[in-house]
Amino acid sequence: MRLRLIASALLATLSLTGVALAQTEVITARREGLRGVGAHMEAMKAIADARGNPAPAVERIDAMTAFFTTFPTRFPPGSDVPQGTNPGQTRALPVIWTDNAGFLQANANMLTQITALRGAATGGDPAAFAAAFQQTGATCGGCHRTYRAR
Ligand code: HEC
C-alpha cells in the first residue's frame, strides 16, 4: 500500500518533470525561430535603408511566411513559464491564452503584411519595399506590445 503510494507519487513527479522539459524545448525552439526572423529583418533593413534592389529579400520573406504559418502552434498552454530572458525562460504573456483570438489575429495581420512585403520585393521598387518593410516592423511591434513581456 505504502509502496504503491510512493510509486505513484514518484510517477506523478516524473510526468510533471516530463511536461516541464517539454515546455522548455518548446520555448527554446520558438525563441530560436524568432531570432531567425529577427536576422531576416536585420538583413532586409540593410536593403531598405540603402534603397537597394529588394529581389534578394524574397527568399527571406518566404522563410518568414513558413514560420508564421505555424507560429501559434508553438504556444501550447502553460508555455508562459518560467518568465524571463534566460535560456529556457520565456517572455510569452498569459494573455496569449486568455485572449487567444486576439493573438491569432495579430499573427494573421503578420501574414497579411508579409504578403504585402513580398509583393513589394518582387515589384522591384526600392522605395515601395522600404515602406512595406517599415510597416512590417510595426506589425511585429503590434503583437509584441500586447503578448510579449518587456
Ligand atoms: C503574433 C505575435 C507575434 C508576432 C507577429 C511577432 N512576434 Fe516576436 N515574439 C512574440 C512573443 C510572444 C515573443 C516571446 C517568445 C518567448 O519568449 O517565448 C516574441 C519574441 C521575439 C524575439 C526574441 C527571441 C528571443 O531570443 O527570446 C524576437 C527577436 C522577435 N520576437 C522578433 C520578431 C520579429 C522581427 C517579428 C516581425 C517580423 C515578430 N517577432 C513578430 C510574438 C510575436
TrEMBL record:
GO terms for molecular function: electron transfer activity; heme binding; iron ion binding. Gene3D superfamilies: Cytochrome c/b562. GO terms for cellular component: periplasmic space. The keyword S-adenosyl-L-methionine does not apply. Keywords: Electron transport, Heme, Iron, Metal-binding, Signal, Transport. Residues 1-22 form the signal peptide. SUPFAM superfamilies: Cytochromes. This is Cytochrome c.
